[in-house]
Amino acid sequence: MSPSTLALPLFPWILVPLFLTSFIVLFTSPTCANPEAKRLYEDLLSTYNRLIRPVGNNSDRLTVKLGLKLSQLIDVNLKNQIMTTNVWVNQEWSDYKLVWNPEEYGGVQTLHVPSQHIWLPDIVLYNNADGNYEVTIMTKAILHHNGRVKWTPPAIYKSSCEIDVEYFPFDQQTCFMKFGSWTYDGYMVDLQHLDQRADSNVVDPGIDLQEYYISTEWDILTVPAVRNEKFYPCCEEPYPDIYFNITMRRKTLFYTVNLIIPCVGISFLSVLVFYLPSDSNEKVSLCISVLLSLTVFFLLLAEIIPPTSLSVPLLGKYLLFTMILVTFSVMVTIGVLNVNFRSPSTHKMAPWVRYVFIDSLPKYLWVERPSKDEDEDTDTLAIITPTSDTLKFDIDDAPYDIPAIPPSRYDRDRYGDSTKFFPTDTLALPAPPPRVDDSALIDELDDTPSTEQKTYTSINYIAQHMKNVDTFEEIEQDWRYVAMVLDRLFLWIFTLAGVLGTVGIIFRAPALYDTTPPIDVIMSKVAQKRGADYMGPEN
Fold it and tell me: Where in the cell is it found (predicted)?
């Protein structure tokens, strides 16, 4: 066996110590390679007292500069009037105890130290809504060799915000975040904005939006910051604070699709009630169904907006207007149904009702009543009296063909050339009696009641009854026609009221005419980068 063959199994055992040595050197080298930073840390903080305000003289004023970088607008709770934001709180001040010469420490110019080891200003959010007034995540602070300290902790704040719901959902809200020192007055700690100029207390824009993630519900319009000095009754010293104002406009697509359009559709369903025939017996049911639907929308609205009595939201006004409209439509529908089912036995039609709703108004409402047949208007059943003319009729005037009578039963020479005969005659006629005088026959019938006379009396009664029934039905049809005209009249009235009410209420919101472009889309680098990714590298 050659020596090279014996050396092959020993090769892995030689590599193991090499890998272990490299691993130890790799992960321990930063600690051992930066002894100057370790020495600097020990020299600065070994005798440092983080409880004492870092000034040379107790009467000196320490200037703390404050800035806010908005990362995300998490939520604006209308019902609880709380704005939830994700921010970075930029704080800068000078600490004379943390000054060093970089040349003495190997050129180290900055040092990252835990913020719990140095003095921190007690900057809190005054209008906090959940109890966490101060920053909860204690990130490291950055120390510069000239004594400047920079601390930028992230925080999620829930701040109280007075919500104005007058034009909801086409509303515009202005919320603020008030920051200030809780214990130090203005003579001890002077709070200023990072970008504040000496001649002004207003900074616009006062919030950094470069790392802002665009909200799906709100457009940010302006973010000014204002420095104020407030004097409290307890103390003579001023207490400075900074208001970070956020003016935002609601994006209305969600509410338009899910609230406005359904409400408008339901409101116009109440108008269609008057197009429904009165005889269908579904008019009142449709009105009640629409009223219940609006009640459900009212309950949804009550879950969104705050329970305030200062103003009624725009959507609430529209729902209230629609409910009043539907309520009136129910009342009017009941009245129209009452007119529709009137009859001569219960109501008498006044002349002015006939003139207005039958003769005059229909032509202006495009309501056309079918015209009656002229023959039907003039042809009435006359009262039949048993005269000679009614006891006989001419064959030529008969409404149907009369069969010819056999010659053996009808002899013209014997009975004359008269074509008159009794309507009760049939083809199987008995032998005709001897011819008598017609006038004598009529006189005899007048004096002696006969079956024919009783029959004609009954026919007269039936004819009069039929005439009364026709008159009764004609008056009922007139009442129904009046109800139809009323339906058409209220159809136009309620349509006009619905259109004017919808336009007059919804289009009163100033946000509908505000063309101010949102600044979050312009200033946010996150939004610009996302837009560039959507456009593609070729664009």
Answer: Postsynaptic cell membrane
